[in-house]
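Sample pair:
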Amino acid sequence: MALTLYVDTARWRAHHKHVLEQFPDIVPVCKGNGYGFGHERLAEEATRFGSDILAVGTTYEAARIKDWFSGDLLVLTPFRRGEEPVPLPDRVVRSVSSVDGVRALVGARVVIEVMSSMKRHGVTEQDLPMLHGAIDDVRLEGFAIHLPLDRTDGTDAVEEVIAWMDRLRSARLPLHTMFVSHLKADELARLRQQFPQTRFRARIGTRLWLGDHEATQYRGAILDVTPVSKGDRFGYRQQKVASDGWLVVVAGGTSHGVGLEAPKALHGVMPRAKGVARAGLATVNRNLSPFVSGGKQRWFAEPPHMQVSILFVPSDAPEPRVGEELVAHLRNTTTQFDRLVDH
């Protein structure tokens, strides 16, 4: 009995095709936990639709994926002098975000990241004159810009890229390839029209692999069901049951990522109020689980265990049965399944 990721393969791949049509020259991204699918599966899918390159998060990921993908591998984490050396083939391209990093990678294939409004990392306009001598000693694959998801100040993403293209051109740096992130299809088309001599390559992960929410579903198998009465004690901490119902043991615990949630940016009064309410309930050990039984998300009876979770299902709900699977609303990027089933 397992926590299973079910994939409607035909629908999932149809979505890939749609994204590929919108973004020619795409650079599929496979980082972290492989967006919930695993590195091997995404490398297989990228090979299937004919990608010549795959972007990964770190050199350690590149070292693992190199045996599953035969094309180029772009490491997104910028090189830093003094980092632990990881043996990698020549088809690995390193991102660099400083002049010093470029100078330290003599003979390597590199993509130079520029500082965007993200203000995360990248070379600045003041660095550009110093890049001339530095790039002579590397194999420059292009420049890259990583843009924010939201633009609350009303600025235009395309204009930000154009401003950088103008800076690079004024500094007489090569503009044959520009890697971009978080642009819409029409925005990319505008750039291609304005700079026909530059090859724009969109690095896309979430939109490609997770853009169709109906194509995938997590489900946890029910392992045990125990009827309980109000006042019965249970679990590691021997808490009392608040009312009659069932304790349901379901596959999926902390080792799968159940109970772990990435922080979210909250916009508006209502989401903030709900966040405050959830935090208040958590202080009295009331936490809503991701598992759905009888059409409702059920509460954790106690904090998730390593490989299973214990839920409380009240007596007025349909009785859960051993062997049934409960749909689980889980975040793909923090979840590790036991098995993946194509259907």
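Confidence is low (pLDDT under 50) at residues 272-285.
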